[in-house]
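## retry 2 of 3
previous attempt timed out at serialization; input unchanged, resubmitting
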Amino acid sequence: MKKMNEMVETNTNIYREIFMCYPDDNMKTVKDVEEMSEKKNLDKYDELKEGIRGHAVWFPLKFLEEEKLAAQISSMEYYIPDETYV
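## retry succeeded, writing output
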């Protein structure tokens, strides 16, 4: 299991460094998403691709955790019943 966790950690870090794709646990606010999207480094792909093993990466559990994502009274979504989203 330890070896699997190390592989997943390595894959996650490589994808993060090259693609800066979301969702990602390092992106806790919308501002973070905007800043990270500007930092893509596709030139490093050839250098780092050999370190990728399989397709596993960590599932992001803290993506946008600092954002208030509830519908605001000024938005159209506020007036739609909650059952619509279930």
